[in-house]
Amino acid sequence: MTILKTTNLGRTFGGLKAVDNFEIYLDHRELVGLIGPNGAGKTTAFNMLTGVYVPSYGEIQFCDESIVGKKPYEITQKGIGRTFQNIRLFKDLSVIDNVKIAYHQNVKYGVVSGIFKSKKYKKEEEEITEKSLELLSIFGLELKHGELAKNLPYGEQRRLEIARALATKPKLLLLDEPAAGMNPQETHQLMELIRWIRDKFEITILLIEHDMSLVMNVCERIYVLDYGKIIAHGNPTEIKSNPKVIEAYLGEEVTI
Ligand SMILES: Nc1ncnc2c1ncn2[C@@H]1O[C@H](COP(=O)(O)OP(=O)(O)OP(=O)(O)O)[C@@H](O)[C@H]1O
């Protein structure tokens, strides 16, 4: 079942077509990679899918509904969660509060209930705390729940970002360079975790990554962007041997 489909999607900045004719589909429970050299347009594509940028043209269908023109928070509520290339945590809040804030996007009590701290409010709060701790334990962060996010080592901040994104209960999770700045051992563990998350939460994952071993090992299908256009699409074996992909990566410090 296809949950996301884009048609002739594009974004221009002045005269630059940062992304052009971007056409992808994602099926339920797929793990798909989006790769390409620096400046190819990967983050711009993510920004359109999540409402951070309004597309200059084209269509995005998510769960059979157009999400073009919707605000980022509306798209989050519809079921697209994401992480950012540059980590965006509330650095001066505790680890658990970072996750709880994300959960609050889906709670049912109203403002009045919140102000007067009704029974329903307290029950919801207890549930959110419990669920947040459960989520933190998946990411090996439960013992650090009281620490300030800014005091976590880099790899743990990246994991906390994924936990936050999952707390918004996404059907589709977009990960923008989840392994950036991680050492090989952390990257390997993350790879396992990403696969596990997809299975446990039964979600679709689209990830941007520069670490080719991670992409090739973890993704079932891969789209390759170059100068804003998709130049290749296929499984890892097909992508590795695609001449257009090899050419696009010439001069980059990566082995594919
Ligand atoms: N807000 C913006 N204003 C002007 N140009 C932009 C803007 N955002 C992106 N661009 C340009 O669009 C192109 C694609 O950028 P983008 O960040 O999407 O690439 P990327 O593939 O994510 O790169 P990287 O791998 O380096 O993160 C680049 O030429 C970039 O300079």
TrEMBL record:
UniProt domain ABC transporter: residue ranges: 4-252
GO molecular function: ATP binding; ATP hydrolysis activity; L-isoleucine transmembrane transporter activity; L-phenylalanine transmembrane transporter activity; L-valine transmembrane transporter activity
Record keyword ATP-binding present: yes
PROSITE patterns the UniProt entry points to: ABC_TRANSPORTER_2 (PS50893)
KW Secreted (keyword) present: no
Listed Gene3D superfamilies: P-loop containing nucleotide triphosphate hydrolases
Gene Ontology terms: biological process: D-alanine transmembrane transport; L-alanine transport; L-isoleucine import across plasma membrane; L-valine import across plasma membrane
Name of the protein: Amino acid/amide ABC transporter ATP-binding protein 1 (HAAT family)
